[in-house]
Amino acid sequence: MAASEFLLILGTDCLLYRGPPVDGAAHRHHAIQLAVGLGEPLRLRAPAQAERIAGAALIDADAPHQLLGGAPQLALLYLEPESRWAGALRSGRALAAQPLQVHPVSESLRARLRGFQPEQDFPALCADWLTELGLPKETMAVAPLDARVERVIAHLRQHLDQRHSAAALGRQVALSPHRLMHLFRAATGLPLRRYTLWLRLRAAVAAALRGATLTEAAHRAGFSDSAHFSRSFRAHFGLPPRFLFEHRDRLVVRFR
6-140 sits in which CATH class? Predict the structure, then answer.
């Protein structure tokens, strides 16, 4: 891993960032965050808490926190708080005690994160990371998609610039809105609205990396304007989307 390289892997309910720290200011974001120092330990703190030093940290959604430097290279895994993996963290009591927790990390996982390449098995890496928090791997298994849900997802991907109701989508696959919402969440781990937001974030990032301006990327992905995209991106990841433009020449991005 080159010291100057930034890696982003963006799914429909998670994002992995690997690289140097980007913003050391105190902030909060809507995603659950797992952080690992890839060389030196992390230095971090939450409001009204003393500075803490640890190999890894688990930070709940919307919890204020600050990374104080220390680790020149780190890995951050962001989980959509309504996703299956986030639900497993909560049901397994990993997030029960405090919104910011430090925990040990094995050298084997740290080495995998340092050497991880975009073409490798990303879900397996995430599963092993969460297993270190005590989650059994079977809680992270993904069931095959219902064909009707697949058709709805294909429609959403093709029409991100439109607004979609459960009733209209259900009519396309001969399902009631309630039945569609139930099947959709069971199959994807996310409610329809949150899944659509992640699809739009992915599409906007892809457009930005292809050379679109912030405004163009926002409109192509179905956001009302660049401010809406910026708020959504920062709310989920604690990073401004200008990060994509400032580091475009050093950024390796993959979508899963």
Answer: mainly beta
